[in-house]
Amino acid sequence: MSDLWFKGLDDLELVEGALRLSTKVDPTVNATWVELQLEKMLDEAELVLSKEVDEKARFDALLRLFYQEWGFQGDDETYFSSENAFIEKVLQRKKGIPVSLGALLLFFARKLGFPMHGISFPTQFLLVVKWPEALPEYINPFNGEYVAKHTLSSWLKGLEGNAAVLKTEHLSVADTSTVIGRWLAVLKGALMREEHYTKALACSNIALSLVPEDPYEIRDRGFIYQQLDCFQIARQDYQYFIDNCPEDPAAEMLKLQLKAINEEPVVLH
To answer: What is the pTM (predicted TM-score) of this model?
Structure first.
């Protein structure tokens, strides 16, 4: 990834990369507060875990602390809210989605020396603990429960159909930049649904700085510009998609959008 924003991203913990993303999309995010909060919670976790000697008992204590004492939980009611994708909001509300909760738990686990990693599973973000001389253990960060491989297989079949087969690559450890790429898409989608188009445009511009000629991202940007009454730029983006993806069913719909836009007065920005 060539964009300077992504430079060194894989050297960061996932939650640190997510915070960088948050501030890029919304400059009002209080990154200093987030960093201080993480430091405070890490100090508390170290104190609680110091009472345990056995490594696995220490890890179980971390899970209890995170999900029971601190009260982090998956947001069932407003799962697709952008608040679940901004780390600052997740820390404030104690609610999130698998990737945001997983990023936080992963941060504390790694800082405390546990062999935990993130997995960009097709259905959701997963965590894996790789104890020495033991089989990997998978955790659903949405609720902190262990997940068996047969359950992961069922999730995959639910997404891709009954012919889907769980493969090794589905459970490979993901680097920070890969997860942040998916996180960016989730955040943009949430902001578009909530009609926060200025922030959604920031997401789209980040994505296009990485893959400048992605016609689907340009199509989405065109939609955002249309909502912002930037009709001339929206027209150009829609036409780009139509020219590059003429067989896509969306192309015909965009032709109708272009007709509607052409009837709008030009707004200069």
So the answer is: 0.92
